[in-house]
Amino acid sequence: MSSTLPAQGALPPLIPLALHGPAVLAFGAWFKNALCLAQDGAACMSATVGDLDTPEACRDMDAWAGMLLKQGRPAAIAHDLHPDFHSSRSACALAARLGVPAIAVQHHHAHVAAVLAENGYPGPALGLALDGVGLGTDGTAWGGELLRVDGAQFQRLGHLAPLPLAGGDRAAREPWRMAAAVLHRAGRADEIATRFAAQPAAAMLAQLLDRASLCPPTSSLGRVFDAAAGLLGLCPVMRVEAEAAIALERAASGYLERVGDVPAEPDGWSIDGAGRLDLSPILVALADESDAGRGAARFHVTLAAALAEWVVAAAAHTGLSTVALSGGCLHNRILSQRLGAALRRQGLAVLEARTLSPGDAGLALGQAWVAIYQLNHGR
Questions:
Q1: CATH number at residue 64
Q2: Distance from C-alpha of 70 to C-alpha of 121, rounded to nearest angstrom
Q3: Looking at residue 161, what is its pLDDT?
Q4: Long-range pairs, 165-169, Cβ under 8 A, ≥24
Q5: Hey, which residues does 156 pair with through a beta bridge?
Q6: Contact 215, 160 (CB under 8 A)
Q7: What pLDDT sits at residue 35?
Q8: 308 and 367, same structural domain?
Q9: Sheet with 36-39, edge to edge strand ranges
Q10: Residues of 303-328 as b/e, b for ≥16 C-beta within 10 angstroms?
C-alpha cells in the first residue's frame, strides 16, 4: 500500500468550515493532487498523492476517493474544469455511478475559494490567483488572475498580459523559450539565436514565434518567473518542477541579504483600461542586466509593487476591501511577504493560506466550497 494512504483507516483532522450544506467530494486537479470531502460544516483533506502522471498516483487518488466515500454519500462531485485530467474523468465517472451532479470548477476560482474557505470568509472578495497553469473559461491557459469571487460565481477583473508559449507545453519546461518570447515581443528577435546558442532550437525559434497560431498564449505568472530566470541565465532548461522559480528566488534572496533592499522599477509595468497587467518592461530590462542576483531582486520587488497597485485599483473600483492571495507562486516568500505587506499598508484585509498549501494541494477545498454554494443557491 502506498505511503500516501492512511494507516489503519485513520483520516486527517477536520478543517472547520463556516459553511453548511450538502456533502461534496472534490477531486482536485492534476499537479499535487489531493481530495476533499466537505460535510456538516467541516472538511477532510486527503494526503497529497502527487502529480497524476504515474499509475501509482492515479491509484492512490482513486483509493482515497473510496475511503472518503465511506464517511458519507456526497450530493455532488466537484472537479477541475479541464476535462482530460484523471481526476476530472474519475470524478465524472463516480458522479454518474452515484446519480449525482458533477460540478466543474474553474481552477483559479477554486484557488481563491480555498483561501476564503480556510479563513472562514464568505465573500465577496477580491482574489489573486498566481500559478503555473489552469484552464480558463475561454479555453486558454490562465495563471495570473485578478478575480472577484462571490460563492459559486466569479468575475475575471483582469489578468497578466499574455505571453506566447513557443513550442506549447515545452515552453513550461524550458525557460529560455519564455525569455525568447519576451525578446521577440520587444523587437529583439535577432538576439535569440546568439543569446541561447547552446539550445539546438534557438536558431529557428524566432520563426516559430512569428506564427502566433503555433504559440498559444498564457497569462501565467509561473511562466513570467521562467522568463525572468531565462533572461538572467539562471535556468535555461528545468530538470525538476519549479527549478527556474526557485533559482530566481534564491538569487534574489542572496542579493538582498548581501546588499540590502532595492527599489522597484518605476516604469517596470503598466495596467491598461481592460485590467491587464503588463510586466514586459521589467522583463526587457532584465535582458540587459549584468548581475543576475541584482536582476532577480529587481524583478521580485517590482513584481510585488505591480501586483499591489493592480489590486488596490480593483479594490477602489469594486468597493471590496478584502483580498485572498492564492496559487503556487505564493510559495515564493519574497513575493508573498512583500505583496501582503504592501496591500495591508493600503488598508486592505489580506487572507492567505493557513494550514493548507496555497497551491494545487489545497485546491480541492476550494472546489468543494464552490460546489456547496452552488447546491445551496441553485447556481
A1: 3.30.420.360
A2: 29
A3: 98
A4: 165/141, 165/215, 165/216, 165/217, 165/218, 165/223, 166/205, 166/208, 166/209, 166/215, 167/201, 167/205, 167/208, 167/215, 168/214, 168/215, 168/216
A5: 147
A6: no
A7: 97
A8: no
A9: 14-16, 42-45, 36-39, 24-26, 76-80, 102-105
A10: bbbbbbbbbbbbbeeeebebbbbbbb
In terms of Cβ atoms closer than 10 Å to its own Cβ (0-12, 13-18, 19+), residue 9 is exposed
Q: What residues contact 187, with CB distance under 8 A and at least 6 apart?
A: none
Count CB neighbours of 132 within 10 A: 23
157 in a domain, yes or no?
Answer: no
**Does residue 234 come out as left (phi exceeding 0), alpha (psi in the -120 to 50 range) or beta?**
alpha
**Same domain, residue pair 89 and 199:** no
d(CA 196, CA 322): 43
243, part of any domain: yes
**Residue 237: inside a domain:** yes
Half-sphere exposure of 26 (CA within 13 A, CB side): 34
Assess if residue 203 is contained within a domain. yes
pLDDT at 378: 72
What is the predicted pLDDT for the residue at 1?
Answer: 40
Q: Is the pTM of this model over 0.85?
A: yes
C-alpha cell at 351: 487572507
Rounded to whole angstroms, what are the CA distances from 4 to 61, 92, 358, 373?
9, 23, 20, 30
Low-confidence ranges of the chain (pLDDT < 70): 1-3, 6-10, 379
Task: Please tell me the predicted confidence (pLDDT) of residue 13.
Answer: 78
Cis peptide before 216 (omega within 30 of 0): no
Q: Look up residue 110 and give its amino acid.
A: A
- Residue 119 C-alpha cell reads as 479563513
84 Ramachandran zone, left/alpha/beta (phi>0; psi -120 to 50): alpha
Q: Which residues contact 165 (CB under 8 A, 6 or more apart)?
A: 141, 171, 172, 177, 178, 181, 215, 216, 217, 218, 223
Q: Which domain range does residue 275 map to?
A: 163-351
Q: Count how many domains the chain has.
A: 2
Quote the pLDDT of residue 3.
Answer: 56
Distance between CA atoms of residues 74 and 53, nearest Å: 27
Same domain, 298 and 369: no
Q: How far apart are CA 124 and CA 116, in angstroms?
A: 9
